[in-house]
Amino acid sequence: MAVGSEQGTVAILSAGATSTPLDDKTVAENGWYVATGQTDSNMAALEKAQPGQWKLQHMLCGHDAAVLDVAVNADHDMVVSASSDGTVIIWSVRSGQYLQTLISNVLPARIERVLISAEALIICYSVSGSDSHDQLDPCRSLSLSYATNTKGIYSAAEVAALHVYSTNGRHLRTRKLVHELCDIALAQDGQYGACVSRDSRVAVFDTHTLSVVRQFELPACGCSITWGTPQQLVVGCEGGSIVVISADIY
């Protein structure tokens, strides 16, 4: 986190008496911690001091490239940060201690999304062949084309994937994607995830195996997705419409 940086700012939080511009932020499931990321490769963890007030708890430095996404989970004492150079770093949210670095097995790649499930699985979304210095536009889709040549080899410009890691950093599975993804969300219990794509589709997947368990067609192009209840998905679409889907997976 760089105090005074105006590049890519989307919000301002108060840490003590200091107003801090933030590029990306995420709130822990208990509402007591906020983790932030910056395009200058730094990040920070803040703790709620009182309603409306946040105190800076840790400055977390270690990335060599821009931090594109962060995730925090207080129950598992984890902050996970994703970088444009394909690295993912795990920290302790309470102590700020560096724990481990994960590297995507699809290289060169940028990690555009990272999520922590309730079961402490780490879900990463990587895109290969993108310019690691480009700024992310939250309104555009993530570049995800998928094709093979006659030898069945994937070029760096054609591959994007979901990856799942265990809480100790062991790589469990990777799934190459066939859609352009706009957003990803995890269910509260961590068993399932859901993603919305530019081709007006929603897919629900198992977070352990990354296998697709349900698919749905949208009447409009989806931009964002969240879990309204364990059985319902809420999708925001272009044009301002909202679609509620009965997932029917439990």
UniProtKB/TrEMBL annotation:
* Region forming the signal peptide: none
SUPFAM superfamilies membership = WD40 repeat-like (SSF50978)
Q: What keywords appear on the UniProt entry?
A: WD repeat
Q: Name one Pfam family in it.
A: WD40
Instruction: Name where the WD repeats lie.
Output: 60-101
Q: SMART domains per the record?
A: WD40
Q: What is this protein called?
A: Uncharacterized protein
What is the source species? Coemansia brasiliensis
Q: What is the lineage of its organism?
A: Eukaryota, Fungi, Fungi incertae sedis, Zoopagomycota, Kickxellomycotina
